């Protein structure tokens, strides 16, 4: 039976990085279950209370693409987006970029239950580093999924701001195979990002831009998350 006053979160693992503290915590939920929390750069990055939009980021990106064989996922987090990608049998090759070596190490040591079966999947290549290293225009992907911040207006690392600026977005779009999809997750609507993607689509041509907003109930609060997609012509 759930207790009236849930215990405070327990820290399962913690590391100090040049970008600030990273921690894996767990706590009891109001329903008596266990929720895992990830702190990155000293900022709350996510928990497992409701991961429907992390999963939807993957599903919508994959659904928009006829043959999603090669997928780039940035970053790893607690693995829900990557797991949803791996559940699609059409996917043959998944590059996951994760900037925090500590998180990759905890995953390898089996400390993160939600990452079991994700990092060890034979289709996965882990890039322990900045996803920007892979957004260089060199490699092509059918689907590029970005969930590294709480959105461009709520960064976990200030250096990530360049990811949402025109040069990086344009390079990411150039890396889409014909019929490919770029999808970016945000914890709130991001009109600036939508406008930049729409302007790039006008300039580059052959792209369709979409905003998909979702309302989620989280422990008595109503939140609106958003996913931004740019779909390349097939
Ligand atoms: C919100 S979590 C991702 C959640 C993930 N979609 C899931 O389903 O669990 C953000 C992750 O991106 C990582 N990250 C932040 N900035 C990054 C960057 N520039 N390159 C690669 N990974 C980054 C963080 O360390 C964190 O693990």
Essential attributes:
234 residues, alpha/beta, Rossmann fold, 2 domains, seven-stranded mixed beta sheet, four-stranded antiparallel beta sheet, 5 helices, 11 strands, globular, binds S-adenosylmethionine
Characterization of this structure:
This protein has 234 residues and is α/β, with parallel strands linked by helices. It has two domains: 38 residues; 181 residues, Rossmann fold. It is built from five helices and eleven strands. It has a seven-stranded mixed sheet. Strands 1-2-3-4 form a four-stranded antiparallel sheet, covered by helices on one side. Strand 1 and strand 2 form a beta hairpin. It is globular. The termini are far apart. The structure holds S-adenosylmethionine. S-adenosylmethionine binds next to strand 4, helix 2 and strand 6. Keywords: Polyamine biosynthesis.
Radius of gyration: 17 Å
Catalogue the unreliable spans: none
Which percent range describes the beta-strand content? 35-45%
Strands of the biggest beta sheet: in what spatial order?
7-6-5-8-9-11-10
Helix content: 10-25%
Q: Biggest sheet: strands, sense, closure?
A: 7 strands, mixed
The strand count comes to: 11
Give the termini separation: 53 Å
Provide the succession of SSEs.
EEEEHEHEHEEHEHEE
Instruction: Indicate the CATH class of the largest domain.
Output: Alpha Beta
Average pLDDT figure: 94
Structural class: alpha/beta
Shape: globular
How many structural domains does the protein architecture include? 2
Number of helices: 5
């Amino acid at each position: 039976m759930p207790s009236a006053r849930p215990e405070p979160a327990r820290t399962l693992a913690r590391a100090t990085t040049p970008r600030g503290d990273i921690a894996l915590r767990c706590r009891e939920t109001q329903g008596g279950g266990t929720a895992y929390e990830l702190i990155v750069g000293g900022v709350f990055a996510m928990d497992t209370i409701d991961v429907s939009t992390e999963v939807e980021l993957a599903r919508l990106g994959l659904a928009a693409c006829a043959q999603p064989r090669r997928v780039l996922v940035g970053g790893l987090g607690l693995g829900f987006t990557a797991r949803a990608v791996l559940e699609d049998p059409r996917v043959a090759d998944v590059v996951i970029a994760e900037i925090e070596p500590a998180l990759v190490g905890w995953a390898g040591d089996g400390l993160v239950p939600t990452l079991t079966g994700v990092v060890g999947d034979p289709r996965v290549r882990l890039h322990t580093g900045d996803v920007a290293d892979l957004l260089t225009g060199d490699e092509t992907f059918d689907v590029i999924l970005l969930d590294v911040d709480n959105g461009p207006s709520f960064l976990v690392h200030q250096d990530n701001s360049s990811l949402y600026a025109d040069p990086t977005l344009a390079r990411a779009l150039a890396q889409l195979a014909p019929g490919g999809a770029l999808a970016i997750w945000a914890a709130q609507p991001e009109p600036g990002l939508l406008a930049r993607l729409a302007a790039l689509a006008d300039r580059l041509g052959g792209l369709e831009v979409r905003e998909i907003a979702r309302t989620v109930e989280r422990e008595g609060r109503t939140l609106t998350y958003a996913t931004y997609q740019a779909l390349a012509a097939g």
